[in-house]
């Protein structure tokens, strides 16, 4: 995967507003690469993170589940960051996608 793909993914993720989430597949589709959700995951893993202007904690799986080995401090860190932004979770521990999924214009 080239750096151009990663930068394009970062540019889409930078648009996700606080309090909203998007899926890996959604990001890939918005990039015109609908079959490359896994590569979006690779990009998020390699991202400079929030300090680098990429809120990759706002990217989740389609079912609202979180990355099991979130890179910013363990599995609970992503949830804590999202909760701090007001993202709602279901009793099963997944993001409430009905309420919090970002719908780009």
A few lines on this structure:
Helix content is 40%, strand content 4%.
Give an overview of the whole structure.
The protein is mainly alpha-helical. The chain has one domain: Orthogonal Bundle (Arc Repressor Mutant, subunit A), CATH 1.10.10. A two-stranded parallel sheet has the order 1-2. The radius of gyration is 13 Å and the shape is globular. The mean pLDDT is 91. This is Methylated-DNA-protein-cysteine methyltransferase related protein. Keywords: DNA damage, DNA repair, Methyltransferase, Transferase. GO terms for molecular function: methylated-DNA-[protein]-cysteine S-methyltransferase activity.
- CATH class term: Mainly Alpha
Strand content: under 5%
Question: Main sheet, how many strands, which sense, barrel?
Answer: 2 strands, parallel
**What's the oligomerization state?**
single chain
Order of helices and strands: HEHHEHH
Supply the number of structural domains.
1
What percentage of residues falls in helices of 4 or more residues?
A: 40-55%
Mean pLDDT: 91
Q: From the alpha carbons, calculate the radius of gyration and give it in angstroms.
A: 13 Å
* Structural shape: globular
- What is the fourth-level CATH superfamily? Winged helix-like DNA-binding domain superfamily/Winged helix DNA-binding domain
Architecture per CATH nomenclature, i.e. the level-2 architecture: Orthogonal Bundle
Class based on secondary structure composition and strand pairing = mainly alpha
- Uncertain runs with pLDDT below 50, 5 residues or more? none
Q: What is the terminal-to-terminal distance?
A: 27 Å
Number of helices: 5
CATH topology type: Arc Repressor Mutant, subunit A
